[in-house]
C-alpha cells in the first residue's frame, strides 16, 4: 500500500475543489478515485463558530479527548485504590 503525504492529499483535494474530476486527478497522479473521495471528506473545511475545521481536525480532537479520559480514569482508579489501602 502506498502512503501519501498530507500535503499531497490536500493538493489533490484543492484540484477537485477547483473543478477537476476524480477520474482526471486519479489518472494523472495515481491514487484511486475512492482514495481521492475519502481525502475530500477528510480535508473539507467547515466553519464552526468562526473557526475553520476539517474532519481530520475533528478526528484528532476526538482521539485526544478519548486518551485524556482514559488517563484521567486510570489516575482516579489509582488514587481511590491507594486511599482504600491506607
Task: Report on this structure.
This protein has 86 residues and is mainly α. The protein has helices at residues 6-17, 22-29, 33-43, 55-85, and strands at residues 45-48, 51-54. It has 2 domains: 1-43; 56-86. It contains 4 helices and 2 strands. A two-stranded antiparallel ribbon has the order 1-2. Strand 1 (45-48) and strand 2 form a beta hairpin. It is elongated and about 60 Å long.
Please outline what is shown here.
The chain is mainly alpha-helical. Helices cover about 70% and strands about 10% of the residues.
Protein topology:
Elements: H1 6-17, H2 22-29, H3 33-43, E1 45-48, E2 51-54, H4 55-85
Antiparallel strand pairs: 1-2
How many domains is the backbone divided into? 2
- Give helix and strand order, one letter per element, not per position: HHHEEH
Distance between the termini: 54 Å
Low-confidence stretches: none
| Beta-strand fraction estimate | 5-15%
Number of helices: 4
Mean pLDDT: 87
Rough outline: elongated
User: What structural category do the secondary elements indicate?
Assistant: mainly alpha
Q: How much helicity do the residues have? A: over 70%
Amino acid at each position: 500500500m502506498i502512503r501519501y503525504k498530507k500535503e499531497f492529499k490536500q493538493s489533490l483535494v484543492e484540484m477537485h475543489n477547483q473543478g477537476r474530476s476524480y477520474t482526471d486527478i486519479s489518472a494523472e497522479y495515481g491514487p484511486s478515485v475512492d482514495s481521492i473521495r475519502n481525502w475530500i471528506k477528510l480535508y473539507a473545511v467547515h466553519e464552526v463558530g468562526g473557526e475553520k475545521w476539517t474532519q481530520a481536525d475533528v478526528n484528532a480532537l476526538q482521539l485526544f479527548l478519548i486518551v485524556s479520559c482514559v488517563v484521567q480514569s486510570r489516575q482516579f482508579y489509582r488514587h481511590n485504590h491507594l486511599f482504600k489501602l491506607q
